[in-house]
Amino acid sequence: MHRVWNFNAGPSPMPLPVLEEIRDEFTDYRGTGMGIIEMSHRSGEFQALLAETKALLAELLGLTEGQEIVFIQGGGSMQFVMEAYNFLRTRAAYADTGVWAHKARDAAAFFGEAYDANSAKDRNYSYIPDTYDIRPGTDYLHITSNNTIYGTEYWTFPDVNVPVVCDMSSDILSRRVDCNQFAMIWAGIQKNLGAAGTALAIIKKEFLETARTDVPAFLQYRTFVEKDSAYNTPAVFCIYTLNKMLHWIKNMGGADAMEIRNKKKANLLYAVIDGSGGFYRGHAEPAHRSRMNVTFNLASPELEKDFIARAKENGFAGVGGHRLVGGCRVSLYNAVTPEAAEAMADFMKEYMRTRG
Amino acid sequence: MHRVWNFNAGPSPMPLPVLEEIRDEFTDYRGTGMGIIEMSHRSGEFQALLAETKALLAELLGLTEGQEIVFIQGGGSMQFVMEAYNFLRTRAAYADTGVWAHKARDAAAFFGEAYDANSAKDRNYSYIPDTYDIRPGTDYLHITSNNTIYGTEYWTFPDVNVPVVCDMSSDILSRRVDCNQFAMIWAGIQKNLGAAGTALAIIKKEFLETARTDVPAFLQYRTFVEKDSAYNTPAVFCIYTLNKMLHWIKNMGGADAMEIRNKKKANLLYAVIDGSGGFYRGHAEPAHRSRMNVTFNLASPELEKDFIARAKENGFAGVGGHRLVGGCRVSLYNAVTPEAAEAMADFMKEYMRTRG
Fold first, then answer.
1. A-chain residues within 8 Å CB-CB of B73?
2. Domain with B91 in it
3. Using the beta-carbon criterion (under 8 Å), do B73 and A73 form an inter-chain contact?
4. Beta-strand runs (E) in chain A
5. Is the pLDDT of residue B325 over 90?
6. In this structure, are strands B138-144 and B91-96 parallel, antiparallel, or unpaired?
C-alpha cells in the first residue's frame, strides 16, 4: 500500500486506522451480513449508529444546552441557504473574513438584507476583525471560525447581543471551543470529521423556535429535528465515517488532545516560515493564524509553481493554494499526523536551502 | 465473511465484486497514495472519474439529445423541491400513483399550483392510470416510473403535450427505457446504482432554458450544469460508487441484460404468489406489477409478522413492507442475484407448505 503525505484542504486525509476499520467491515458491518452502504437507514443498526454519533458529538463538543443535532446533505452551500431561509426575517449580519463569508452573505441576500458587520478586506483578509457593527433588528450574526483560503482563525469569539451562527466547517473539534455560546453551529464534515456528503448542524432549541415556518418542509431545520435526520434517506456512509472519526478523536483524548496535536503541527510550519528570512511569507498576521490552513507565498508565482511541483515529486500532495488566490497552502486537519507536518517542515527547509 | 440475502428497499444491496473492489482500493485509490474519500474533488483523478461517470450514464441510458447530467445531494426530497422551484411557473401536473407522487406534489404546492393529472387511489394504488388530465398552462407532468411502496411500475409512458419529468429513483437502468422522451429524469442512486448520498439529474438543454432564474443559486439546476456538479464539494464517495455500479452494469451487458436479469427474478416471485392459491396476495394488478418491488399480503397482519420473522431467521433481510402500508415487500434491484430471488421463492413455497 502506497500512502502520500496528504495536505488536501478538503476532502482531506483520514487516519489510516480509521480507513482500515472501514475497509475491514465493508462487506459485513458488525456481523449483519451486509455492508453499511447496503443497510436500510431505518434499520436498528443504523438508528443506533445515528444516536451514538449524536451522543459522541455532544460529549466531545461539551454541549450542555440540550442542543438539537441534525445531519443534512448539501454541504456548506446548502447551509448558507437554509440558515438564511430559516432565520432571516429582517436582516442578518456577516463578519467579512473572506470568500466563505461572501458566499454565505450572498446566499442570504436572496432572502432579505444581509450586511457586513465588519471587514478584513482592508488588509487582504489577513486578520480577524474584533469589532462588530450590529444594526437594529438583526436576526443573527454569521461568522466563519476558520478561513481555509486566507488561513485565519478566530481565537476570541464575538460578544454581541444577537444570536451567533458559526460556520465551523474547517476547524470543528480541532480545538477546545465553548460551543454553548452559539445559537447554531454547522459544519461540513469533510475536513476534520469524515467523508464529504453531509453537514451537521447543532441548534439551540430556543433559536430553532424562532425559525420561519413559511419555508419548504425539506429546507426547514425543524423538519430534520422532528424526523431525527431521516425525513428522507440520509447520507448513511458519510454519517458512518463521522461516527468512526468521533470514536478516533475520543480515543486520542478528545478536543483538548486534538488542540495539542494541531498546535504542534502548525507551530512546526510557522516556525519554518518565520525563520526563513522572508523566503516564505505567511499570509495571515501572526495573531490570527489558522492552525488548520498554513497559507504562504514565495517570491514569485513561478517559484511557487516550482515549490508545489517539487513537493509533489517528494510525496507531498495538496500544497497548492486555493484556485481563487494562488500561493501555497498546507492543511493540517485532525487526521494529519505530526510526522507529516515534520516531514513537510523538513522539505520546506531543504527546498529553501537549494533555492534560497 | 457473513452475507445475508438482502432485499432492502433502499439503501439496498451492492454486487459483492463491486464492494470488494471498493474495499481493496479504500486506502490507496489507483496508486494515488490516498483513498477516494481523502481526495480533492478538484483533483485530476476525481475530475476524470466524474467525466467517465457521465459518459457511462449517457451510454447505458442511450441518451442522444445532448442532455446535461448533474449530481446533487439531498436525495429525492431535494429534487421534489428543485424541480418545482426551477420549472413551476403556472401549474404542474402530478400522476397520482402513490406516496412518492404525493410527496412530490406537496413539495411543489409551496411554489404554485400542483394538481393530480390522474389518480390510482380508487383501487388503492394497485395500478398505473393511463389517461392524463392536463390543464392549460401546465409547465410539466411529473411521473414516478416505479412505485416502491405499492409495487407498481410504468410499462407505457405518457404521451402528452407538456414536458414530462420522470422520478426514476427506483428503476433507473433496471430495464431498457427510451430516456430521450423525458424533459428531465432524476434519481436517487441508492437503489439500483450505489450508496445513498447523491441524486443524478438528466436534463434536456431546451427544458433547462425554461428554468426560472429567481431562485437561490444553489437550488438552480443551471448552477450545477455550469459548475459541472462542483459548485461546492459533491458527495465524492457516492459518485464513485455510482461509477463502479455503471461499470458493473456495462460489463454485465447494459440495460438490456439488466432487464432480462430483473424480469427473471421478478417472475420467480410472482409465480409463487400466483401459484399460492391466495396464500400470498399480490398487491399490484398483474399488468402493472413492478419488477423492482414485489409487494404482497398474507391472510392477516399476524401471519405477515410471522412470515417476516421466519424469513429473517432464515437469512432473508428487508422483506417487511413499507412502514406506511405494512404487508410484505421483496425488493429486487439490479444487485440482487437470481440466486437470491430463487432462494426467496423457495422459502416462500416452504413457508406456505408449513403454514398453509
1. 73-75, 78, 197, 235
2. 16-251
3. yes
4. 5-6, 68-72, 91-96, 113-119, 138-144, 146-147, 152-153, 164-167, 184-188, 199-203, 281-282, 293-297, 316-317, 328-331
5. no
6. parallel
User: Are the C-beta atoms of A208 and A185 separated by less than 8 Å?
Assistant: no
pTM over 0.90: yes
Domain assignment present for residue B4? The answer is no
Contact (CB<8Å) B77/A231 = yes
What spatial distance separates the first Cα and last Cα of chain A, rounded to whole Å?
35
Chain A residue with minimal CA distance to B188? Answer: A233
Residue among A1, A22, A188 whose CB faces B233 most closely: A188
Residue B67 CA to residue B330 CA, distance in Å, equals: 33
Interchain CB contacts (distance < 8 Å): A and B: 205
Last residue of one domain, picked from the residues B196, B225, B251: B251
Cβ–Cβ gap A28/B237 under 8 Å: no
**Local structure of residue B239 (DSSP, 8 states):** H
> Would you say residue A81 lies in a domain?
yes
Chain B residue at shortest CA distance from A44: B318
CATH number at residue A212: 3.40.640.10
Whether A67 maps to a domain, the answer reads yes
Q: What is the ipTM of this complex?
A: 0.98
Instruction: Calculate how close chain B gets to A12, using CA atoms only, in Å.
Output: 5
How far apart are the C-alpha atoms of B171 and B9, rounded to whole Å? 12
Instruction: Look at the alpha carbons of B51, B56, B59, B62 in this order and tell me if their dihedral is positive or negative.
Output: negative
Q: Same domain, yes or no, for B279 and B181?
A: no
Q: Are A283 and A297 in contact (CB under 8 A)?
A: yes
Size of chain B in residues: 356
Rg for chain A, CA atoms, rounded: 21
* Residue A147 shares a structural domain with residue A281: no
* Chain-chain contact of B195 with A237 (C-beta, under 8 angstroms): yes
The answer to whether residue B72 is domain-embedded is: yes
- The label of the residue with cell 483578509 reads A125
What is the spatial distance between Cα B202 and Cα B166, in angstroms, rounded to a whole number? 10
CA distance A101 to chain B (A): 14
Q: Which of A22, A34, A81 sits opposite B6 (nearest CB)?
A: A34
The tens digit of pLDDT for each residue in A72-116 reads 999 999 999 999 999 999 999 999 999 999 999 999 999 999 999
In this complex, do B38 and A14 lie within 8 Å of one another by their Cβ atoms? yes
Q: Which of B233, B207, B91, B107 is nearest to A196 (CA)?
A: B233
pLDDT at A326: 87
Catalytic residue numbers of A, as ranges: 100, 167, 191
Exposure string over A85-120, b if 16+ CB within 10 A, otherwise e: bbbbeebbbbbbbbbbbebbbebbbbbeebbebbbb
Q: Which residues of A fall within a CB distance of 8 Å from B33?
A: 2-4, 6, 315, 317
- Chain B residues within 8 A of A28 when measuring between CB atoms: 1-3
- Do the chains contact at B217 and A20, CB–CB below 8 Å? no
Tell me the per-residue pLDDT of A271-292, one tens digit each, with 9 for 90 and over: 999 999 999 999 999 999 999 9
Cβ neighbours of A42 in B, within 8 Å: 323
Query: Are the beta carbons of B77 and A218 separated by less than 8 Å?
Result: yes
Q: Are residues B160 and B278 in the same domain?
A: no
Of B219, B251, B283, the residue at which a domain comes to its end is B251
Q: Distance between alpha carbon A256 and the CA centroid of its chain, in Å?
A: 17
Q: What is the chain B residue with the closest CA to A238? A: B197
In the predicted structure, residue B1 carries a pLDDT above the cut 90 = no
The span from the CA of A83 to the CA of A212, in Å, is: 10
